[in-house]
């Protein structure tokens, strides 16, 4: 998770005009040990007045306990540099997350392209979580255009690489030759409840009048964010699953099915692993969207190297593995908007666009049973759409559902 313990390390450079390079591993915060098996290969090395560049290669899985397999999981890459070639603790060091095997995000500079700038300036209230919504009118294009990419603009954010759509896919804009209105929702996290915060953010939307062959849509899959999403205290591998049933896809998908080309796997601070499972005729297909090392601070569009087909009758299950064991004091985690509450969602982008399926998942249908088990007779809404205040019986009065679930 970004530290030295159990890290797979390579150390190299150029000394007296000659490259040096070796495969190491770390047992903790100490000088790394040289691997018994040297599995990394140096392809080239160069140096100038400002940079040292090493080009290296290795097989994905060396079956060596001193190496870390390279997979579809989010990988934390640690780095350290020094002014000399001595192998000592360096002050210049850091860590960054990466999806090493994902396709590159790409760039956009197509013919007749235009950028629609959506800007939001906000003075934030002193709340720990704020979802700020603003309406924006599209440019006055008199003909239909296609959106072909997005770039987020901010000073800091979770994740953040641009999304450039494949060359044959676009999202319709001004579909009838008239401006449209769009709602932009921005989630601000302010856990210290700081006051007088001013923030500017926005989105750059890349558009083109050259319409593409396919139009894209989005389906939200997973578990509905409601009171039924509940992670017990001190749970380290608690699985939440949301199902998009075969009956639903049979009734809502076209005969030729749909093809998925990118998706976002989304959870909050308790999320550790996620995977989208696909079943056809009772048989589970190979996984093609998963992350066994989820990093909340690195949420990217996972661009698929091969577009994946979903047919009528396919059953899809989105699973999240959560961990509440690091909460102090121990507490149950409920579904909700705050990053300290939880979500379990996949935003699946596909083509061709359909109007018959936008949301496909599970929700908690036994509210009355849950309230009975907690001894709750009546509740009333409060300023939290995912919590309520107990009004009866008297012994539980004025407690919230969240408080009761932690007593």
From TrEMBL:
GO biological process, one term: norepinephrine biosynthetic process
Gene Ontology MF: a single term: copper ion binding
GO cellular component: extracellular space; secretory granule membrane
InterPro entries hit by this protein: Cu2_ascorb_mOase_N, Cu2_monoox_C, DBH-like, DOH_DOMON, DOMON_domain
Alphabetical keyword list: Disulfide bond, Glycoprotein
Domain DOMON: from-to ranges: 1-82
PANTHER family, per database record: DOPAMINE BETA HYDROXYLASE RELATED, MOXD1 HOMOLOG 1
UniProt record similarity statement: Belongs to the copper type II ascorbate-dependent monooxygenase family.
Protein name as it appears in the record: DOMON domain-containing protein
